[in-house]
Specification:
This protein has helices spanning about 10, 35-45, 60-65, 85-90, 100-115, 175-180, and strands at about 20-25, 50, 70-75, 95-100, 115-120, 135, 140-145, 150-160, 165, 185-195, 215. By secondary structure, it is α/β, with parallel strands linked by helices. The strands form 2 sheets. Strands 1, 2, 3, 4, 8, 9, 10 and 11 form an 8-stranded mixed β-sheet that branches. A 3-stranded antiparallel β-sheet has the order 5-7-6. α5 crosses α6 (about 175-180). Keywords: Transferase.
Length: about 230
């Protein structure tokens, strides 16, 4: 069995070059590949196209790469928690493609399944549909959206093994599994790394066949975007 373990995030992302298109798993700040993002900031890779559900916050997640102006284009569903993102968008420094969340997920799935495109009713009659092909099926219009073409997918799991099998925990099982399927090269960072054969096969969410590199991460902060508590009475 192939051992896919690499020494750490710096090695895992070492061949991500300027101009690459990368997927980054996570939902908000939950389940994001914190170690790989830090390594990308340190490496200084620029002109990146980032595909992610959101753009992090100003001082964490993808927001760190926005701060250092490493991101050329952001393809996302929700971007409302990042002031630097807003500033770059309004100033014309950052190219942005906003996508309905379901379409974002399905374009990831299409890439993983080897499908060139999908048809969805989401976006019909809106700015999302401008310049795109529309087809009618049984009297209803559908928008054609292409599968993503990402050079790398970077995901974060709770537990993985040396063969690349992954288990995600709770909310972090969001965009991570479908992005893991979709990248030409998939990099996984995990909280716990075990030997191949130690994971219960029935619990595995992403089979190792999709994962090319894996390492055990460190010092996870697991921040919460908006902490809401009940007011004192």
């Amino acid at each position: 069995m192939i051992n896919k373990v690499v020494e750490g995030p710096e090695v895992a992302i070492s061949d991500i070059q300027d101009g690459a298109t990368i997927m980054l798993g996570g939902f908000g700040l939950c389940g994001i590949p914190e170690n790989c993002i830090t390594a990308l900031v340190k490496k200084g890779t620029k002109n990146l196209t980032c595909i992610s559900n959101n753009a992090g916050v100003d001082d964490f997640g993808i927001g760190l790469m926005l701060k250092t102006k490493q991101v050329k284009k952001m393809i996302s569903s929700y971007v409302g928690e990042n002031e630097e993102f807003e500033r770059q968008l309004l100033s014309g420094e950052l190219e942005v493609e906003l996508i309905p969340q379901g379409t974002l997920a399905t374009r990831c799935l299409a890439a993983g399944y080897g499908m060139p495109a999908i048809f969805t009713p989401a976006g019909i009659g809106t700015e999302v549909a401008k310049g795109k092909e529309v087809r009618n099926f049984k009297g209803k219009d559908y928008l054609m959206e292409y599968a993503f073409d990402a050079d790398f997918a970077i995901v974060k799991a709770w537990k993985g093994d040396t063969a690349g099998n992954l288990i995600f925990k709770s909310t972090s099982r969001n965009f991570n599994p479908i992005m893991a399927m979709a990248g030409k090269i998939t990099i996984a960072e995990v909280e716990i790394l075990v030997e191949a054969g130690e994971l219960d096969p029935d619990q595995i969410h992403t089979p190792g066949v999709y994962v090319h590199r894996i390492f055990e991460g460190k010092n996870y902060e697991k921040r919460i975007e908006q902490r809401t508590v009940r007011s004192k009475k």
